[in-house]
Design brief:
single chain; binds magnesium ion; 13 helices; alpha/beta; two-stranded antiparallel sheet; binds thiamine diphosphate; Rossmann fold; six-stranded parallel beta sheet
Length: 355
């Protein structure tokens, strides 16, 4: 005889649709008009930052850059749901998360210019440096979350991983430990449909990426990742429940731009696909919502664009004025300075590298 060994189902949540209509039943109770405006402005800034840095990169003023075009709701919804003491652990494409968590953006920009000094994140930001080796941030995040629990702190950890990252061993191993230890962890799968040129359907035969949580005994949900309100609600709920254990949130979004500035997506995907996703733009729907409510208009939009443009000019000016200390190349790699580096250091110093 067969009986049921396990019953699993993944819910999908959308609160605000493509036209800005909201499902009142699921609209987060703690979100007032000012909060929606703040979400909108944060998303606008994230996009403006992308445009600015892309232009700097094309002028040779930054190194490779990974823009977030189209993924702003996933960043801002999740970051704004975090409490002050919650900690975020990013991958490498979470500009909006850093911004909403009040990272000084000139410091953030230094990373893309190529200075490791960017990784000295101010304590109050409660965030970690970017992790480029795919999914390696996940085992770390489980340890960080375990430490919160062990020390009796009321803080959750929110970690980000791409759709591609879910195929890594680190992902499965991290989820397994997080489930067994019931760590206060929220795992955001930022499913932007592509891992460089590898499409989502070739990444996994699973119908959702969220369901990978079942194998680890972890709660999961799939949300419209272009809906800032759904992402906010799911993250808030997961943080509230984090004392009982982790949650996986799959945010279904789309990478509107290139993987990084070294990539040309026209080589492997069609314009039709991109055009289809343009209609689901995460920023546009919030604008429609605010406009229909009579709390946003062209004047406010223009004023915000001007303010953010000035904010960006200041950020770039500050970042470009940064003078790195070349000694860091030698004395921050190891806990001690090995002989070979000491020799190079002496040579560099003798060659007036510091002038
Ligand atoms: C362990 C490892 N393998 C390969 C790479 C090269 N690489 C950088 S990003 C990337 C794809 C990541 O895709 P996804 O996890 O979906 O994140 P996204 O770039 O879409 O945000 C790859 C293969 C890497 N950085 N680290
Ligand atoms: Mg991806």
């Amino acid at each position: 005889m067969f009986s049921e060994a396990f019953d699993g189902k993944v819910d999908y949540l959308q609160v605000m649709d493509e036209k800005g209509n909201v499902d009142q039943q699921f609209f987060p109770k703690d979100v007032d008009d000012n909060t929606v405006i703040a979400m909108y402005k944060n998303m606008m800034f994230t996009r403006a930052f992308d445009n600015k840095v892309l232009s700097l990169q094309r002028q040779g003023r930054t190194s490779t850059f990974a823009p977030s075009f189209g993924e702003e709701a996933t960043h801002i919804g999740s970051a704004m749901a975090m409490r002050k003491d919650d900690i975020f652990v990013p991958a490498f494409r979470q500009t909006g998360v850093y911004y909403a968590r009040k990272m000084p953006m000139d410091l953030y920009l230094l990373y893309w210019i190529g200075y490791e000094d960017s990784n000295k994140i101010p304590k109050e930001v409660n965030g970690f440096p970017m992790a480029v080796p795919v999914a390696t941030q996940l085992p770390h995040s489980v340890g960080i979350a375990f430490a919160q629990k062990y020390q009796g702190r009321d803080a959750a950890v929110v970690v980000y991983v791409g759709d591609g990252g879910t195929s890594e061993g680190d992902f499965s191993e991290a989820l397994n430990f997080a489930g067994v230890w019931k760590t206060p962890l929220v795992i955001i799968i930022e499913n932007n449909q592509w891992a460089i040129s590898m499409p989502r359907e070739k990444q996994s035969a699973a119908k959702t990426l969220a369901q990978k949580a079942f194998a680890a005994g972890i709660n999961c949900i799939q949300v419209d990742g272009n809906d800032v309100m759904a992402v906010y609600k799911a993250t808030k709920d997961a943080i509230e429940n984090s004392k009982n254990g982790p949650t996986v949130i799959e945010c279904v979004t789309y990478r509107m731009g290139m993987h990084t500035t070294s990539d040309d997506p026209t080589k492997y995907r069609t314009d039709e696909e991109t055009e289809k996703w343009k209609l689901k733009d995460p920023i546009l729907r919030v604008k429609m919502y605010l406009t229909a409510k009579g709390i946003w208009n062209d004047d406010l939009e223009k004023k915000t664009i001007e303010e953010q443009s000035k904010e960006l000019d200041d950020i770039v000016q500050k970042a470009e004025a940064f003078k790195p200390d070349p000694e860091g190349m030698f004395n921050t790699v190891y806990s001690f300075v090995p002989e070979v580096l000491k020799k190079e250091f002496d040579e560099a110093k003798a060659s007036n590298y510091w002038q």
